[in-house]
Amino acid sequence: MTFAGVAWYGRSPMKPQFEELDYRQTPLGELILQRRRILALDGAEAVEVKLNGEYLMSSLFTAAEVELSRLGLGALSGQDWEVVVGGLGLGYTAAAALAFPQVARLVVVEALEPVIDWHRRGLVPNGKNLSDDPRCAYLHADFFALARGEGFDPAQPGRRWDAVLLDIDHTPSQLLNGAHGDFYTEAGLKRLLRFLKPGGVFALWSNDEPDEAFLALLRKGFEHAEGQTCVFDNPLTEKKSFNGLYVARAPRAAPPA
């Protein structure tokens, strides 16, 4: 039997295998936040996000999200960095960025308001840490629309940043929304340079290994660009899995206005 959403066996309460933490209809479709016990991992819990019935992210697989910040910000020097994270997700990229004491300001741009709400309510692993850190601010907006327009600070159009870290689409060619496609073109990437300080860094997560064709596009506007493969243990398959990361540095001379 069940009581108040908890499965009971005899007299002892047992955690349910699935617990739906939130359900919303969004412009991108049905969005679900759930906690799941994974029996194959001795009942270990994972927090997961599903979009239109497909798994979008999981707290089991965060190595590349953390590495996105480590590589991107590790390429910077100096102090008082101002950083943009495109895509909040479960907050692992933003949390890894805030682990750098040089970060003075972090703006996380997220198109889906429920994802910001999950963090403010502490429903996800990094929610409290991000929401309580005075350096961190959430911006409910479309990252790609801002990149086409006046940038990532509505109060200061054209503001430049030390780093932009992006984790939204599956890959530069496999998009959550076709409207994002113009960003991953030569013109779109050059538009992004308007919002990076000289020598600033753009870093991008991808579900697939780095693609040479996309690296060639980056190198047309950026001073330097490279791809790296992040290899990590997959506890479900007991094998190695991988994601791709791109890191590109803006020219050290300011681009023309």
In short:
The chain has 257 residues and is an alpha/beta fold.
Secondary structure: helix percent: 10-25%
CATH superfamily of the largest domain: Vaccinia Virus protein VP39
Q: Based on CA inertia axes, which overall geometry fits? A: globular
Return Rg in Å.
19 Å
Strand order of the largest sheet: 10-9-8-11-12-14-13
What does this structure look like?
- By secondary structure, the chain is of the alpha/beta class.
- The protein has two domains: 57 residues, no CATH class; 187 residues, Rossmann fold (3-Layer(aba) Sandwich).
- Helix content is 22%, strand content 39%.
- The protein has seven helices and 14 strands.
- It has a seven-stranded mixed beta sheet with strand order 10-9-8-11-12-14-13, with helices on both faces. A four-stranded antiparallel beta sheet has the order 4-5-6-7, with no helix packed on it.
- The radius of gyration is 19 Å and the shape is globular.
Q: Secondary-structure map with pairings?
A:
Elements lengths: L1 E2 L2 E4 L2 E3 L3 E9 L2 E10 L5 E8 L2 E5 L4 H12 L6 E6 L5 H7 L4 E8 L2 H8 L6 H6 L3 E5 L2 H6 L12 E6 L19 H7 L3 E11 L5 H10 L2 E11 L4 E11 L8
Parallel strand pairs: 8-9, 8-11, 9-10, 11-12
Antiparallel strand pairs: 1-2, 2-3, 4-5, 5-6, 6-7, 12-14, 13-14
Looking at this protein, list some descriptive labels.
257 residues; disordered N terminus; 4-stranded antiparallel sheet; 39% strand; 7-stranded mixed sheet; globular
